[in-house]
Each structure stands twice: as structure tokens, then as C-alpha cells.
Design goal:
By secondary structure, the protein is an alpha+beta fold. The chain is 29% helix and 25% strand. The chain is globular, with a radius of gyration of 17 Å.
């Protein structure tokens, strides 16, 4: 058995713990080992915080394009990044994949595309005193496979996978 879910969230700081709690609740219910759940929740927190901070221009509250669904972040015209982002998680057998997509400017050319936590390049990591960039490195350390990419004219995507461990009698493994 497998399960997936998707959240469309506003680019507000309060959305980050909401996404984290949703993931932790789903993992607990499914029977995923708590250490694996914690690692994934920290990685998700970093990816969501990145989307909130860098995922596009904030619009004034209530400002919407006429005739558009205000919750559809992907119904925006290129260059008019909106105030939303999407989190999607898939639990399937032995693996969990999480994807966080925003509608901002995307990663700078030096940062995208980059894949796999096993391919560490010391030049890619920010200096110890840097204010930005440590969250992406943390995601790389916590996940088994990571991809940072851009959707041309449509924003950034952070996706990461982790092999799951299950508690005895886990719901997804029983079915």
C-alpha cells in the first residue's frame, strides 16, 4: 500500500510548522520509524522555509488576478510570482519522496540543477559564517537523494527521497 498528499500553502512563516506537523502526523499514522520521520520533517522544514523566503514576491493581501483561482499557484503568468507554494509527499513501500515547489525566480545558475547527497562538492557549501544556504546543505545531509531544480519561468523545486524504516505492525506495511 502507498499514500500521497499535497498541500498548497501560503508563503507565510506559519505555513512551515503546519507542513511539518502534517508530515509527522501522516508518518506516525503510517507507522514510520520516528527517527526517519524526524529527519524528513527537518528537511521539509528547511525546504518550506526556503520557499517562504525566496519563492516569489509577496502580494498585498487580497490582491488577485481577475478570474483566477487564488489557490492555484501555477495559474500565474510568468514573472508574476504569487504568495503560495506546494508540498507533495509520497510514501510508497520502502521510500518517501517529498517535493516542495514554488513560483519564484528559481535557484541561481550555480545552484541548479544539483542532485544527490552523495555527491558533495565543498565549493557548493556556503562558508560557515554565511547567513543563507545552510538549509539546502542540511536537506542533503538528511535525505538519501536530493534534487534542486528550476521549472523554466515557473519557480524552484526541491525534491528529496529517504528510505523508510517501519515500526512493528505499521499500517502501510500490513496492507
Amino acid at each position: 500500500m502507498s499514500m500521497w498528499w499535497s498541500l498548497h500553502l501560503r508563503r507565510e512563516a506559519a505555513s512551515v510548522p503546519l507542513a511539518r506537523r502534517f508530515l509527522l502526523g501522516a508518518m506516525e499514522t503510517a507507522g514510520v520509524d520516528p527517527e526517519i520521520s524526524f529527519d524528513l520533517s527537518v528537511a521539509l522544514t528547511e525546504a518550506c522555509a526556503n520557499a517562504v523566503e525566496h519563492g516569489g514576491d509577496h502580494r498585498a493581501e487580497g490582491e488577485q488576478s481577475a478570474g483566477r483561482d487564488p489557490w492555484d499557484a501555477w495559474d500565474e503568468r510568468p514573472g508574476t510570482a504569487c504568495g503560495r507554494y506546494r508540498v507533495t509527499a509520497y510514501l510508497d513501500g520502502e521510500k518517501c519522496r517529498i517535493e516542495v515547489a514554488d513560483s519564484g525566480p528559481g535557484f541561481p545558475a550555480r545552484r541548479a540543477p544539483h542532485a544527490s547527497a552523495q555527491q558533495h562538492d565543498p565549493q557548493q557549501h556556503p562558508p560557515l559564517g554565511a547567513e543563507d544556504g545552510r538549509g539546502l546543505c542540511l536537506i542533503e545531509q538528511l535525505a538519501d537523494h536530493v534534487h534542486f531544480g528550476n521549472r523554466p519561468g515557473r519557480g524552484a523545486v526541491v525534491s528529496f527521497d529517504k528510505v523508510l524504516k517501519w515500526r512493528k505492525g505499521a499500517l502501510l506495511m500490513v496492507s
